[in-house]
Amino acid sequence: MANFMFCTGIENSIPTIDNGRTRVDQMESCGHYARWREDFDLVEDLGIRFLRFGPPLHKTLLGAGKYDWEFADLTLGDLRRRDITPIVDLCHFGVPDFIGDFQNPDFPELFADYAAAFARRYPWVQLYTPVNEMFICAVFSALYGWWNEQLASDRAFVTALKHIVKANVRAMQAILQHRPDAIFIQSESSEYFHADSPAAIHPAEIMNARRFLSLDLNYGRRVNSEMYEYLMDNGMTREEYHFFLGNRLKQHCILGTDYYWTNEHRVHQDGRTWASGEVFGYSEITRQYYGRYGLPVMHTETNIAEGPNGDEGVNWLWKEWANVLRLRNVGIPTVGFTWYSLTHQMDWDTALREQNGRVTPVGLYDLDRNIRPVGKAYKQLIADWRDVLPAQSLCLVVPVVPPAASDAPDAWEQEVEATARRGNSAP
Q1: The domain over range 5-424 is classified in CATH as 3.90.1720.10
Q2: What processes in GO biological process is this protein linked to (predicted)?
Q3: Which of 138, 279, 322, 336 could disulfide-link 5, Cβ–Cβ 3.0 to 4.6 Å?
Q4: SS3 of 62, please?
């Protein structure tokens, strides 16, 4: 049984830009493909036993029913040997070239088949984020026009959203067929929209209703009447809507909430928005999401760029951790915390819309794998709280089976054993 899940992650975003001509692969630009063993050493050195990680979808899913498991076998096998529990991130902001983008109605079933194949191959894996940040993925791809299909309309957004969330639901169903005790940690951006004036109240209300759409559909919760009309007016059918109501898997889920300085917005009366900075903060916004869904909570992403003082990350870490403790102290079951990611990232100053080769200094380590002040602070925080926290909280314990406690062989190990048996029985 797991205690509090202190976590970090390997950034594995893979959106396309330039109308699909350019793939932005964060594992490549941050050096993880070449240095994954070293990165896992760093995870261990921090005292972290949970890692948000997933093989790159575009390199693993090569076509319908066609997979390349080489990198996944190497990395997941190593995590298993180290007894680090992966929270497997199967789709992070992009799809393989043969699928195209999130407007493709074939994506949900192709992705469900991939999830099933993954669960068969790695039966010891229990924790999953099938599709990362479903709302943000749909907004950036089909409402803002930044990634993948690079469209900017309500109809394109609803199309992307219904395909993304259906893919998530179908993947959960497929995984549960092979791992009935699987737990799904959603990892969704927690947002809030502040009206800048009385005239901005109505557009802010619409945005504050729309921010819940991905999780409402994912958890089979009826949307409000205004959002129902919005979905129907922009291409969702009654049959598609009822798919979500009829395939409710909420009981297998943890509500993963991501929070950054940019998650709160000021809204102008004409609908324009800009970042407001931290106004309510993580604990207040998470209370809103918890009140809506009533699920155990995990803080699944946060960071802030290290600035001229060098202590910006340390101060933000302390603030977010204080918010997590506040949630637990008022009785909201909060089961984990994540600084995202292990290393600095690249080009997030333009939200991956451009490949400029600029470092985004948000990691526990830099790209040379030198620990940063926030890395040292997180390591100390984990050491200070790991043994104290479970005894001082009313929070439930999540029934996680660590890799070392699983006796299920990987499919590739079974293949090797079968080959050996055939060789031994040959005449």
Answers
A1: no
A2: carbohydrate metabolic process
A3: 336
A4: strand
